[in-house]
């Protein structure tokens, strides 16, 4: 019997706290005296300027670089040049997913430590060792995989609580898929997202399970707190679930159908793309459950959770009420293209099977809600 090789990856250090940004310099200073701070103009005005002031007051020399909004090869090259000229010893991202992805890429080419300071808990990009790269006009190009995760992730829960609550809900939707996909990969004994073609550690799977556990225990309280822009113990649990446990859990446990479905939706144009990553993945989680043959009880556990958060569980919610069978077949076909993580299900998955699952989710949710 062939011996299995397993692997686990995570950020070197993860720090989370209420009002953490005031003291951020003490965590960053070990990397050197001077660095770049990448942030867009909106975040700069909200909290960036204050953050910059706190870092420089603590003795760091920081050059602020205005992020142009797209994690493109051109933007990475532009910022790399600035970093070389200023002899940056580290790079800091302050913002959302594309800011994070660009900063990781710049840190990689400059060979300097990467510090990620997320302003939202809307996805799990802060902790992972990959970037999603887009063209300057916003079309998906490819992923870049790195040989390490970010060196430091600093999460200020008061900043997360200050953002519109829909971003927290998006992150919860993305996090909800983590354990569903991780358990699928575990059953199939398939490989993880780490670019080493390795299988799950017990540690990676345990984080995915803990992620789900926290979502079901504290989700409602956390959403209520975030709606009022206050930090509560429940919110701190959900922020950790969304950013740390989901990111590390997904990377070290692997993905399956939920994320492939999200990618498959790019076969269509239109209003579906006004939805967030998390919203699309939430429907994909239900598709994953149908494909794996989940019981009524198991399926409804996730369906109820998504309905309570106002996440898409019908084709109408996905803005696809008028999509033809031909359109849905296009989505299904792209979902099962070569290289997609849906091939981690442990059995051959065809476009026809995905098409049936997409329709089955819609029908079950409508029946469950009494919409038929």
Describe this protein's structure.
- It catalyses: glycerol + NAD(+) = dihydroxyacetone + NADH + H(+).
- Keywords: Metal-binding, NAD, Oxidoreductase, Zinc.
- Glycerol binds at residues 124, 174, 259, 277.
- Pfam families: Fe-ADH (PF00465).
- The chain is an alpha/beta fold.
- It has 2 domains: 13-161, Rossmann fold; 164-368, Dehydroquinate synthase-like - alpha domain (Dehydroquinate synthase-like, alpha domain).
- The protein has helices spanning 24-28, 41-57, 73-85, 97-110, 157-162, 165-188, 202-227, 233-253, 257-264, 277-291, 296-308, 325-335, 351-368; strands at residues 13-17, 34-39, 61-66, 90-95, 114-118, 130-134, 140-145, 152-156.
- A 6-stranded parallel beta sheet has the order 1-8-5-4-2-3, sandwiched between helices.
- It is globular, with a radius of gyration of 20 Å.
- The chain starts with 12 loop residues before the first strand and ends with a helix.
Please give a handful of descriptors for the protein shown.
372 residues, alpha/beta, Rossmann fold, Dehydroquinate synthase-like, alpha domain, 2 domains, 6-stranded parallel beta sheet, two-stranded antiparallel ribbon, 8 strands, globular, Glycerol dehydrogenase, oxidoreductase, metal-binding, ADH_Fe/GldA
């Amino acid at each position: 019997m062939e011996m299995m090789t397993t692997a686990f990856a995570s950020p070197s250090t993860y720090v989370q706290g209420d009002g953490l940004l005031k003291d951020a310099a003490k965590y960053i200073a070990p990397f050197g005296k001077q660095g770049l701070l990448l942030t867009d103009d909106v975040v700069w005005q909200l909290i960036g300027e204050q953050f910059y002031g706190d870092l420089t007051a603590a003795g760091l020399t920081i050059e602020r670089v205005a992020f142009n909004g797209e994690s493109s090869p051109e933007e990475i090259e532009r910022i790399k040049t600035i970093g070389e000229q200023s002899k940056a010893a580290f790079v800091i991202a302050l913002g959302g997913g594309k800011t994070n992805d660009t900063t990781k890429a710049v840190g990689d080419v400059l060979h300097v430590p990467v510090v990620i300071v997320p302003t939202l808990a809307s996805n799990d990009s802060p902790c992972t060792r990959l970037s999603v790269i887009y063209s300057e006009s916003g079309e998906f190009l490819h992923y870049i995989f790195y040989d390490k995760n970010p060196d430091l992730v600093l999460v200020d829960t008061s900043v997360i609580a200050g953002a519109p609550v829909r971003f927290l809900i998006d992150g919860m939707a993305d996090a909800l898929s983590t354990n569903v996909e991780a358990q699928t990969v575990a059953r199939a004994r398939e490989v993880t997202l780490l670019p080493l073609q390795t299988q799950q550690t017990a540690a990676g799977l345990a984080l995915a399970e803990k992620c789900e556990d926290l979502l079901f225990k504290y989700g409602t309280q956390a959403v209520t707190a975030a709606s009022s822009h206050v930090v509560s113990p429940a919110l701190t649990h959900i922020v950790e679930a969304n950013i740390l446990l989901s990111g590390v859990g997904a990377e070290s446990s692997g993905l399956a159908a939920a994320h492939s479905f999200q990618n498959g939706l790019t076969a269509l144009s239109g209003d579906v793309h006004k939805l967030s990553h998390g919203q699309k993945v939430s429907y994909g989680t239900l598709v994953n459950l149908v494909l794996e043959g989940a019981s009524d009880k198991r399926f409804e556990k996730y369906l109820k959770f998504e309905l309570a958060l106002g996440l898409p569980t019908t084709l109408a919610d996905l803005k696809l009420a008028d999509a033809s069978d031909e359109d849905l077949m296009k989505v299904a076909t792209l979902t099962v293209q070569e290289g997609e993580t849906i091939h981690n299900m442990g059995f051959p998955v065809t476009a026809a099977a995905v098409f049936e699952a997409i329709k089955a989710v819609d029908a079950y949710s409508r029946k469950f809600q009494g919409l038929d």
